[in-house]
């Protein structure tokens, strides 16, 4: 069986590799350590996106109203000084070029996903609040994932406040988002879910899950990486089979591509791409 073969291969990988594969609206076909927690890296930005659109639908925010672009944020650690992001640690110059000016929240949300902008992420979190992100996880049915702080909030990190995800929780979040396009769901209206899915379809970092799919295959996804961590989470929409969720989270020395850079490729990227290819080949039997 393909799943037994994958498990045998992954048993030889140093560190922890978690996975979740299954059709939308059904139980998983294959899991591997689905509830193991990993440092979230940028995958937490998917939950921030949901929190933003939920706030817009509730009428507490207007996605098209410009907001100030400032590089200064409140720490999640009570009493800690405000913190800022480092430009060299980001992946998107476009947001930095607006520092001192303003930008619509909708545009910031797009940059947060498609280019994985850290500065945009912290600006959005500043508007929706960490409790709003926690609510997004909870409504999706996530059981172990936590978004406790913004990116580069080092005072909070040193105090033990962190961001965690699991493969099962990321599958729950993205699966609920995709399913919510066709029927009212827990995260947002069908129109809101469709708008968020379009943002995820436009993801420009395609070196892991997407790299394992035939060119042109539609995938709504978010990835994340820092040294020692590489994750890919998405929903794939084949033309010849029902859509399915595929999530791979790795905490491993194979993820040595570093914290920044364009289209980073390392052994962890290739591992995730290979798993994505194997799942694609089994798509009709999921």
Which parts are unreliable, with pLDDT below 50 for 5 consecutive residues or more?
Answer: 259-263
**The CATH C-level class name:** Alpha Beta
The helix/strand order is HEEEHEHEHHHEHEHHEEEH
DSSP summary: helix tally = 10
Report the portion of residues in β strands.
15-25%
Termini Cα gap: 12 Å
CATH topology: Beta-lactamase
CATH homologous superfamily descriptor? DD-peptidase/beta-lactamase superfamily
The overall pLDDT, averaged over residues, is 95
What is the SS-derived class? Answer: alpha+beta
- Please tell me how large the radius of gyration is: 18 Å
E-strand count: 10
Query: What is the count of distinct domains?
Result: 1
Strand order of the largest sheet: 2-1-10-9-8
Describe this structure in words.
This protein is α+β, with helices and mostly antiparallel strands and 286 residues long. It has one domain: 3-Layer(aba) Sandwich (Beta-lactamase), CATH 3.40.710.10. 36% of the residues lie in helices and 17% in strands. Strand 1 and strand 2 form a beta hairpin. Helix 2 packs parallel to helix 5, helix 2 crosses helix 6 and helix 4 crosses helix 5. The longest helix has 15 residues.
Key structural traits:
286 residues, Beta-lactamase, five-stranded antiparallel beta sheet, three-stranded antiparallel beta sheet, 10 helices, globular
């Amino acid at each position: 069986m393909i799943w037994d073969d994958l498990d045998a291969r992954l048993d030889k990988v140093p560190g922890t590799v978690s996975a979740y594969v299954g059709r939308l609206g059904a139980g998983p076909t294959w899991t591997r350590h689905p509830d193991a927690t990993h440092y979230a890296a940028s995958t937490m930005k998917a939950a921030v996106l949901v929190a933003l659109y939920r706030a817009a639908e509730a009428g507490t925010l207007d996605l098209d109203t410009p907001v100030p672009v400032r590089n200064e944020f409140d720490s999640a650690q009570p009493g800690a000084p405000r913190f800022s992001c480092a430009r060299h640690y980001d992946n998107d110059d476009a947001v930095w070029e607006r520092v001192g000016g303003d930008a619509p929240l909708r545009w910031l949300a797009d940059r947060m996903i498609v280019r994985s902008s850290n500065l945009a992420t912290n600006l959005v979190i500043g508007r929706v609040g960490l409790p709003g992100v926690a609510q997004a996880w909870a409504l999706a049915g996530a059981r172990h994932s936590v978004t406790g702080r913004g990116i580069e909030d080092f005072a909070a990190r040193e105090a033990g406040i962190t961001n965690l995800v699991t493969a099962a929780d990321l599958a729950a979040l993205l699966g609920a988002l995709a399913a919510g396009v066709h029927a009212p769901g827990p995260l947002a209206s069908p129109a809101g879910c469709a708008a968020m899915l379009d943002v995820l379809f436009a993801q420009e970092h395609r070196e892991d899950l997407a790299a394992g799919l035939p060119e042109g295959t539609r995938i709504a996804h978010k990835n994340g990486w820092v040294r020692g961590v590489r994750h890919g989470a998405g929903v794939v929409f084949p033309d010849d089979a029902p859509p399915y969720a595929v999530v791979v989270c790795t905490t491993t020395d194979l993820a040595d591509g570093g914290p920044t850079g364009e289209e980073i490729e390392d052994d962890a990227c290739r591992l995730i791409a290979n798993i994505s290819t194997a799942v694609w080949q089994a798509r009709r039997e999921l």
